[in-house]
Design brief:
alpha/beta; globular; binds guanosine-5'-triphosphate; binds magnesium ion
Amino acid sequence: MCGTCGCGEENKITYRKAGEKEKLNLEHAHSHSHGNEEYTHDHHHGHLHDHFHEHDHNHATGHATIIPLERNILSKNDLLAERNRGFFEGRNIKAYNLVSSPGSGKTSILERTIREKGTELNCFVIEGDQQTMNDANRIKAAGAPAIQINTGTGCHLDASMVYNAVKALDVSSDSILFIENVGNLVCPSMFDLGESKRVVIISVTEGDDKPAKYPDMFQSSHLCLINKIDLLPYVDFSVENAKETALRVNHHLEFIELSAKTGEGMDKWYQWLANIKTS
Ligand SMILES: Nc1nc2c(ncn2[C@@H]2O[C@H](COP(=O)(O)OP(=O)(O)OP(=O)(O)O)[C@@H](O)[C@H]2O)c(=O)[nH]1
Ligand SMILES: [Mg+2]
């Protein structure tokens, strides 16, 4: 179980490449294979052994150990994230961590980006979901190599999962790596993956108060994509209110309004990616 947010009870993480049959060879993972294309490892076991031990030891003292345990887990994650960041920088891989609530359109934005700019941008994709290969298969159909991480009961990706996935996916130098996090506006905000930039997506069907309700995610992001603007005539969503609220928690946040469905605004997103890629 993740001691930070309580997720990941079964400790089973799987990594499966979209459309490929071979067993993935992930170093450092305690593993057993399930069929030809799936690889499972007991991700948190090593990490958390000490924490469980510490927790047991201090049981009589009540909850006082929870905060140090959280810090310990997050600082271990931060170390691994820095390792990822060094790996990415050394190979000129621009990594984007895409975070949002479920269904805001992360995969749809990626599909359209890959169809329209995939070759130019040299894209690779890591997909994080609790279950199913759906998103990795959608990305592969759009034309980019993808690996699916299924987190089981886990509600976020962490730096170690990304490290394993990057190795299995064989991400090439001078590329863009999109990491679609598990749909959740809370826990993924705490876990640095070593990304170059964090991109938070909200869709106009979610309500314009989300930045106020989930400030950590907006505070830790560089860019906010406001998706599904084709639906604006049908919903009570004020783009102005959403931006104002988000700027109150993070005055550096940039915004792009777009629709993955109609393509409106996608050119601004491509421009942002191009600027970042050459910076
Ligand atoms: N009208 C409209 N629908 C959209 C748009 N973008 C995505 N959708 C729809 O929203 C639904 C969810 O889209 P996904 O791309 O699967 O969302 P997601 O954020 O990847 O979802 P999870 O991975 O489950 O968190 C789908 O039915 C999409 O067709 C958009 O710009 N406009
Ligand atoms: Mg998705």
